[in-house]
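User: Please run a holo structure prediction.
Assistant: Happy to. Please share the sequence and the ligand.
User: Here you go; the ligand is adenosine-5'-triphosphate.
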Amino acid sequence: MSKVVVLGVFVADTAYRAARAPRMGETIMGENFALGPGGKGSNQAVAAARAGVETHFISRLGRDTFADMALQTWKQAGVTAAITKHDDSYTGAAYIFVEAQTGDNAIIVCPGVAGQISPGDIEARSDLIGSASVFVTQLEQPLDAAYRALEIARSSGVQTILNPAPAAKLPNGMLGLCDYVTPNETEAEALTGLAVTTLEEASLAAQKLIAMGAKAAVITLGEKGALYHAGGQSVHVPAFNAGPVKETTGAGDAFNGGFAAALARGLDPVSAVRYGCATASISVTRAGTAPAMPSSAEIDALLAKA
Ligand code: ATP
């Protein structure tokens, strides 16, 4: 039975579009507002479930309206929630200011109670983690919790994926717990100290990630697709053209969810990277993050056409 288990954070994305950011002490009128589900871990779980694989999401929620939004999002996508609810803090939220003319954004993320996920929370879920085909995490929750979860997954023979986002310095030994590390270009630069703009540079950075302990590295390269490196060989998987690009936010999450689902189904790593790229290339043609994740039928149709 294929099963993906994701550890991570849910936040409610609150996006304010205005001509400019307000100055300190000033109030201005905005042009538009949008509220939607976000958080890297939650988005990745939604992507894996939409791709048709049994998916469980480990996190913490508060007892508030945004917690209801999280539960509704996972129910719609078919994600099983492995969460605890807490009264002493709130469900995370992100303030996203979008500059109307350029579309550029500035973001404040408050992870709330999910920012307090502990190694103890993870140990309480060790059976679930150990029963997975693939375990995935990111770096929005505390590093010690992610580390403990990777240790439990590894000791149970579960395939592990670390999406090292947002970029952070990793504790010693963490990459050694990863079958796959999946940074984007910026995160690969932060981890390796190497510039990553060309395919050759991505290959060198991937080799360094392997020298640092990961079994394999997948560097996502935006519209250029992704570079997979393992066993001394690099393979470039181009992005797909699934239509006009509408919004690239969440592309990395779509990639990771699709990649995890494909590995859980038993695809070989390069085919799984291709599946992840197809998932992400469809998501960028749609608005939003979680609502943009495609179904397995849509992904299969794109792969069949390519
Ligand atoms: P974000 O932080 O915006 O969620 P990211 O920086 O983590 O994204 P990217 O490397 O930008 O991740 O993109 C992930 C994957 O999405 C790429 O490997 C590619 O397959 C797909 N993708 C991204 N941008 C495009 C695009 N313009 N057209 C087609 N596919 C794309």
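Residues 3-305 form a domain with the UDP-N-acetylmuramoyl-L-alanine:D-glutamate ligase fold (CATH 3.40.1190.20).
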